[in-house]
From TrEMBL:
It comes from Porphyromonas pasteri. The keyword Kinase does not apply. Residues 75-130 form a coiled coil. Keywords: Coiled coil. The lineage of its organism: Bacteria, Pseudomonadati, Bacteroidota, Bacteroidia, Bacteroidales. This is C4-type zinc ribbon domain-containing protein. Residues 242-274 form the C4-type zinc ribbon domain. InterPro entries: Oxidative_Scav/Glycosyltrans, Zf-RING_7. The keyword Coiled coil applies. Residues 1-26 are annotated as: Disordered.
Length: 287
């Protein structure tokens, strides 16, 4: 009996030790999913940081464009205006050439009509009957009317030519003034571009590099939102419990979700991508 009791105690001790050894293995198994979730959180946070950095880069590029102001548009408008006026000038000059040719044609008609009148008058001296006289008289009268019509056309044409010349002179003067304005604005625009060219090229290169590190789906959404936004902001932080883009109030639960960095969250009012201010600050430090 004593041996049996000893055997039972020994078996119980071995069983207890086996349980104690097995316990750490269970703890390790439970800890593994938590590590996986933590890794996923960091992935979403990294995506948001990358989007914030890209947004900050594009904002700097937009600021450079703002420094140029309306100059590019003004230069384009002046170029279009000058082109339109030069086209108008070309048409006026062509019309004047045609009008001069028309006046010359009418003068030739007058000369020819006068020659015929002289011929008919000579023939009047050799008429044999009244019928021939009447016919020649009618021809002389008809040629006289042709001369009067041509003279009227010459007068009208000459007046049109003169008016057109005045318009051409005024238009040339206006074109000259616009060219002076254009050159001044082009010089100013070139100066501003020269001052910001290196910085803008560097920022655009940085934007391309950042885009390569963002998945295509997110990049497409970013581009679409940015194109639709007035201020070019596609990624905004929460400021005073409100969206940094449209300034509408963000529900508390949504703010909590944003802090957890478990998924990409967009503003339900304007559709912009919302980012935790802490991640924005981290992105700013990277830039």
């Amino acid at each position: 009996m004593a041996k049996e009791t000893t055997t039972k105690k020994t078996t119980t001790k071995k069983s207890t030790k086996a349980k104690e050894v097995a316990t750490p293995e269970v703890a390790t198994t439970v800890a593994s999913p938590e590590a996986n979730v933590s890794s996923a959180d960091r992935t979403v946070a990294d995506k948001l940081i990358a989007l914030s950095r890209l947004q900050e880069t594009f904002t700097k590029i937009d600021h450079i464009k703002t420094l140029r102001g309306e100059l590019p548009l003004e230069v384009q408008d002046l170029e279009d205006e000058i082109e339109g006026m030069e086209t108008r000038l070309k048409h006026l000059e062509e019309d004047n050439k045609r009008q001069v040719q028309a006046v010359a044609t009418e003068k030739a008609k007058i000369q020819k009509a006068e020659e015929r009148i002289e011929e008919y008058k000579e023939q009047l001296n050799n008429v044999k009957n009244n019928r021939e006289y009447d016919n020649l008289s009618k021809e002389i009268e008809f040629q006289g009317l042709e001369i009067e019509l041509s003279q009227k056309r010459i007068a009208e044409g000459t007046t049109e030519i003169q008016h057109r010349k005045e318009r051409i002179a005024t238009l040339k003067e206006t074109i000259g003034e616009r060219r002076v304005d254009l050159e001044a604005k082009q010089e100013e625009l070139a100066r501003i571009k020269g001052e910001t060219k290196q910085e803008e090229e560097s920022l655009r290169a940085e934007a391309i590099r950042l885009e390569e590190g963002i998945e295509e789906r997110l990049l497409h959404a970013f581009t679409r939102i940015r194109e639709g936004a007035r201020n070019g902001l596609a990624v905004v932080p929460i400021d005073r419990d409100a969206c940094g883009g449209c300034f509408n109030k963000i529900p508390p639960q949504r703010q909590v979700d944003l802090k957890l960095h478990k998924k990409i969250i967009v503003c339900e009012y304007c559709g912009r991508i919302l980012v935790d201010p802490e991640l924005v600050e981290e992105a700013h430090q990277h830039n």
